[in-house]
TrEMBL record:
Residues 291-408 form the Mannose-1-phosphate guanyltransferase C-terminal domain. PANTHER family: SUGAR-1-PHOSPHATE GUANYL TRANSFERASE (PTHR22572). Belongs to the transferase hexapeptide repeat family. One of its GO terms (molecular function) is nucleotidyltransferase activity. Signal peptide: none annotated. The lineage of its organism: Eukaryota, Viridiplantae, Streptophyta, Embryophyta, Tracheophyta. GO terms for cellular component: cytoplasm. CDD domains: M1P_guanylylT_A_like_N. InterPro entries: GMPPB_C, Mannose-1P_guanyltransferase, NTP_transferase_dom, Nucleotide-diphossugar_trans. This is Nucleotidyl transferase domain-containing protein.
Length: 409
């Protein structure tokens, strides 16, 4: 048997995701028409003998209650939300709930960060894990040497794939092979976390990494069971024949900013082209709107036949897209109203927002720049003929004049 655990974080994490995360927890922000965590959850469904999926986070229980019951019914796998009353770190959280996780007596525990986008080759990881017989297998990918320092970098034996060295976000370059935030472990992981807690090595590590003052201030708020998977567990386990890598040659991205959610929406839509083409819209402008590239349109959305949509567009429930509208590379959330002849490019349009006639709402399309895409928070109104370029608009604002490169609070 196997179980899967998805690390969700909580309201103090994912702050770069504002203003979208002001309305829903970051893991529920839609990518390619589905909440972010639907993608890893659907991938878990394909694990042989999967007994249960646990979501661990420090968001309020009620924020996930509806989601958890609907996804359990839809996939016919029990999904359960477990809440830490304060952040315990990426290893402390699973350790706290070890009795729940072990209830079904699993031989394998999959652990996934909620904010990564990839093809989740979980069965392949399990095969590799069984072959080398270690305690854990880490999904890894090669990235450019310039970007590697944003992630955990590791060195692996080219023949056995054993992890020989692991450093989290090193200041000097170690290797271009990085940790993707997707793992499979045997239950022995709990014994290892326990040793770290009992010996106090987690606090020793924190103390070493920060100044005395910084340490004293975090020590007051951090509980003694705060354990990080990367620094406190993976680093000391490297070179002990316990950790191995499985390298993906497919796509992988980390989703820390709204700009990256537009990029990841694109990756998931193109994955649908291969795995679930029925989810993608088709149309040539005769009886249905004209569609280019990969586009998702929720069945309840009303899109005018003269609208032109795509590539990389997802339109959520009850949205209304008027005549002559042009949408390119954008995420249109629930209940949005886009009036005649408006243009929306490289943009995320928040729930219940409206965009007026002949308005133009656009970003330049640099997913990594702070203002590289335009984001309208919930219930923003852009009036007729107004132009909004490379801007972030917080919820409930009405724009009656054009703006460029601005954050409207
Ligand atoms: N439940 C819970 N409790 N979840 C947490 C906590 C916590 O206290 N802290 C973080 N998480 C969740 C986050 O929501 C995320 O899904 C995951 O744990 C990892 O978050 P971080 O520890 O903040 O690390 P990161 O995302 O910056 O980097 C990690 O992932 C990268 C891959 O995306 C590291 O492991 C890197 O090495 C790795 O490259
Ligand atoms: P390129 O030659 O590809 O640069 O085309 P372009 O100069 O029209 O690019 P732009 O970014 O201005 O527009 C992108 C898309 O939106 C094109 O498909 C245009 O046909 C369409 N478009 C541009 N302006 C409007 C407009 O005012 N109304 C409508 N409905 N569509 C527009």
């Amino acid at each position: 048997k196997a179980v899967a655990v998805i690390l969700m974080g909580g309201p103090t994490k994912g702050t770069r995701f504002r203003p979208l995360s002001l309305n829903v927890p970051k893991p529920l922000v839609p990518l390619a028409g589905q909440p972010m965590i639907n993608h890893p959850i659907s991938a878990c469904k394909r694990i042989p003998n999967l007994a249960r999926i646990y979501l661990i986070g420090f968001y309020e229980e009620r924020e996930f209650a509806l989601y958890v019951s609907s996804i359990s019914n839809e996939l016919r796998v029990p999904v359960r939300y477990l809440r830490e009353d304060k952040p315990l770190g990426s290893a402390g959280g699973i350790y706290k709930f070890r009795d729940h996780i072990m209830e079904e007596n699993p031989c394998h525990i999959f652990l996934l960060n909620c904010d990564v986008c990839c093809s989740f080759p979980l069965s392949e990881m399990l095969d590799a894990h069984r072959r080398h017989g270690g305690m854990g297998t880490i999904l890894v990918i090669k990235v450019s040497a310039e970007t590697a320092n944003q992630f955990g970098e590791l060195v692996a034996d080219p023949v056995t794939n054993e992890v020989l060295h692991y450093t989290e976000r090193p200041e000097t370059f170690v290797n271009d092979l990085i940790n993707c935030g997707v793992y499979v472990f045997t239950p022995q992981i709990f014994t290892i976390i326990q040793e770290v807690v009992l010996q106090g090595n987690n606090t020793v590590n924190l103390r070493r990494e920060t100044s005395l003052e910084a340490f004293q201030s975090v020590a007051k708020v951090l509980p003694p069971e705060f354990v990080r998977l990367d620094q406190d567990i993976l680093t000391p386990l490297a070179g002990k024949k316990k950790l191995y890598t499985y390298e993906t040659v497919d796509f992988w991205e980390q989703i820390k900013t709204p700009g990256m959610s537009l990029r990841c929406s694109e990756l998931y839509l193109s994955q649908f082209r291969r795995t679930a083409p029925h989810l993608l819209a088709t149309g040539d402008g005769t009886r249905s709107p004209s569609i280019t590239g990969d586009v998702f349109i929720h069945p309840s959305a009303k899109v005018h036949v003269t609208a032109k949509i795509g590539p990389n567009v997802s339109v959520s429930a009850n949205a209304r897209i008027g005549a002559g509208v042009r949408l390119i590379s954008c995420i249109i959330l629930d209940d949005v109203d886009i009036k005649e002849n408006a243009v929306v490019i490289n943009c995320i349009v928040g729930w219940k927002s409206s965009i007026g006639r002949w308005a133009r709402v656009q970003g330049e399309g640099d997913y990594n720049a702070k203002l590289g895409i335009t984001i309208l928070g919930e219930a923003v109104a852009v009036e007729d003929e107004v132009v909004v370029i490379n801007s972030i608009i917080l919820p409930n604002k009405t724009l009656s004049i054009s703006v460029q490169e601005e954050i409207i609070l």
